[in-house]
Design goal:
single chain, Rossmann fold, Dihydrodipicolinate Reductase, domain 2, 2 domains, binds nicotinamide-adenine-dinucleotide
Length: about 350
Amino acid sequence: MADRLRVAVIGVGGIGIEHVKSVIACPRATVVALCESHPKRGREIAERYKIPRAYSDYRELLEQPDIDAVTIALPNCLHAPVALEAIQSRKHVFLEKPMATNAKDALKIAEAAKKSRLTVMVGQDFRFRPGTQLAKMLIDRNDLGEIYHTRLFWLRRSGIPRIGSWFTQKDLSGGGCTIDLGVHLIDTMMYLVGEFEAVSITAQTFAKFGPRDIGGYDWGKGDVDPRKTFTVEDNCVALLRLKSGRTASIDISWAGFHAPEIREYGLDLFGTNGGLSLYPARFFRNGANGYETVNLSTPKLPMTEDRIQHFVHCALDNKKPLISLDESVKVQQVLDAIYASAETGKEIRIK
Ligand SMILES: NC(=O)c1ccc[n+]([C@@H]2O[C@H](COP(=O)([O-])OP(=O)(O)OC[C@H]3O[C@@H](n4cnc5c(N)ncnc54)[C@H](O)[C@@H]3O)[C@@H](O)[C@H]2O)c1
């Protein structure tokens, strides 16, 4: 392989442009091509960022022998098929979250990746946040004692990405706010507590805003078809049990009437010796003068590299990524179980 990883970005909508910028900023990679089905956008981005080749068909791109790796920033329903074809074409793969629209497809990616020995990674960006890395350090040092419960929330007030786009159609997205936002927090929580074995979940989802065409915002570049009905959830509450007996409460919304003064999203970890609240990072404990709150600044930490830079280094140096595919499959199983519980009204066992 060349000294610099030759990367192609597939899908240059809302987040794909960020992939392009990240690869350009990476000293050990070059963007050699992009693929975008919207022909004008593909050409414009290629010109703006001086990317030599723009394809509109990802299969044609995957046939090119001088591309070492692809980053995939496509609608969720295309993650699994394109990732599988990319692996088959011997490309390293950086895949946007969620890994797939269901655990069965996620598992197929993990199995194909294992056989290939390529670097394949889901780009869970929350893992790379300095606050997350600081929390991980404190937890691994046992500053919190036994973590018995965590609280995950992301409560957007008006944040449904483009009502009528692929985001709000279940067959294209796999789900609404839970698979879109919840995936970040579930992955981060499991990583922080070091436990990916979930045993059961009970969940309820709601679609109270999108179907009335309220609560939207203009994220992304996906085409909007106003005739398409809103077939996903815009709110979700759940209680997850992990194998150790530890629990996680999950509260996610794309839209809702929430108090403005609370954090929009966060992750709180409750331990027997201390508590940790993200984001920003604060630590609560009993000090010499009683209950103390310590505001944590985020110092230099070993793992602060950008997620795409991390992927590039792993591919070039044949290193294990911070996010393993087995972990991403486990997260996807939790998402599946949330939807199954909401649909059946029952607690779901997770195998
Ligand atoms: N990590 C994050 O913080 C983050 C943020 C936003 C989105 N995402 C994820 O990134 C993915 C993309 O989201 P987005 O917001 O950029 O969506 P988007 O709709 O803005 O962009 C998707 C792009 O893919 C293009 N596309 C669709 N089908 C294609 C095909 N067959 N071939 C080539 N191009 C095709 C579309 O034209 C569009 O430009 C989603 O999976 C989403 O969950 C992650």
